[in-house]
Amino acid sequence: MRRMHDIGFFTMFSAALALFAGCGANPEPATYLPEQGARVVVVHEVADFDEWHARFTDQAASRLDMGIEEELVMQGEAMPNLVFLLMTARDSAAAASWLEAPETARSMEFAGVQGELITDILAPGILYPDTEEFVARLVVRHPVSDFDRWYSTFRGHERERLDVGVHTMLVTHPLGDRNDVYMMFGVSDPERVAEYMASDLLGLAMRLAGVTEQPEAFFVNVVE
Fold it and tell me: Could you write out the three-class secondary structure of 137-197?
């Protein structure tokens, strides 16, 4: 199950991927999570974030009954009415059932969701330790030609990312498509990260890592 639309509130960074490819030592081991679970990503705009959040919170028990077990709510940094949800489902069937349920569509409409909608069911992914404290985060999605090749390069660049204030939290992909990569990072120095991402030297690293399209990137803040 996948629905992704080309929507106007994407913040696009043509040089972003070089942040996620390179060489050097990786100081923290990653944890490969079991594949039987699933994550759900939902991105949309709302008429008013506070009103949406209150209604979303009121419906938590209903989502739990449908197999949505954990929820991370994030709000756009530059666009405060941008909602970015990352939820953990019991399994991919529960994730698909929740996304396709008429009640889900009705609750979104009632909560003030507007504009185009992005949804994906993701594999549990590769989780990095000791990063949950970051409120400011960067979420990036891009396709690659070969996940294993890309991830090897990505792992080698961890030290350089840390040096500019980017802390890897999660690497994952849609179920059934390992070459469509989603990443989440904690950001400790947003200004330095923005400068690094704007470097003219980063395009080559993007190509060498096997990225096939421009990244889609979101600066967000954790709400809960």
Answer: EEEEEEEECCHHHHHHHHHHCHHHHHHCCEEEEEEECECCCCCEEEEEEEECCHHHHHHHH
Domain ranges of the chain: 11-33+125-222, 38-122
> Mind listing the pLDDT tens digit for each residue in 56-110?
999 999 999 999 999 999 999 989 999 999 999 999 999 999 999 999 988 888 8
Q: Is 60 helix (H, G, I), strand (E, B) or coil?
A: helix
CA distance 40 to 2: 10
Tokens for 96?
A: 């698909």
192 in Cβ contact with 164 (< 8 Å): yes
Q: Is CATH 3.30.499.10 the classification given to domain 38-122? A: no
Task: Give which of 39, 37, 56 is closest to 48, Cα–Cα.
Answer: 56
CATH architecture of 11-33+125-222: 2-Layer Sandwich (3.30)
Span 10-53, pLDDT tens digits: 333 333 444 444 434 444 556 555 556 789 999 999 999 999 99
Q: Is 45 helix (H, G, I), strand (E, B) or coil?
A: strand
Q: What angle do CA 127, 128, 130 make, to 5 degrees?
A: 130
To the question of pTM greater than 0.70 for the whole model, the response is yes
- Given this chain, do its domains 11-33+125-222 and 38-122 carry the same CATH topology? yes
